[in-house]
Amino acid sequence: MLRCDEKGRAFAGSQRQIQFYVNEQPSVLNQAISDAFKTSFSLSWVSPLSSDGYREYWDSAFLKALGLAEHCKELNRFWPSGGPHWDALACVARSVRG
To answer: For 55-78, what is each residue's pLDDT tens digit?
Structure first.
């Protein structure tokens, strides 16, 4: 049974939900995350983007997608190949309120 269409979009479940919020309602997702942590965050979503076929990253590719390629060697020493596939990736900056 297929879980995704030809473009990589999931048909149902939590995978479909994260795809929806990242691509269609990122401000709602960002606010929910900020509320959960009781602080304000500025989030820039990297994955799963519709423009990238809703790709989920793993191994060193997730570090490269986040602009952290300089940590690939450390990851490879620490985490075995074929590790977790990250459902979503975002770059986070804490907002300062004054």
So the answer is: 999 999 999 999 999 999 998 888
Residue 40 phi/psi, 5° resolution? -90, 135
Is residue 4 within 8 A of residue 10, CB to CB? The reply is yes
Q: How is the chain split into domains, by residue range?
A: 13-94
pTM above 0.85, yes or no: no
- Cα distances from 16 to residues 9, 26, 31, 89, 94, in angstroms, run 7, 14, 19, 15, 27
Tell me which H or E stretch contains 72.
Answer: helix 72-78
**Comparing C-alpha atoms, which of 60, 63, 56 is closest to residue 81?**
60
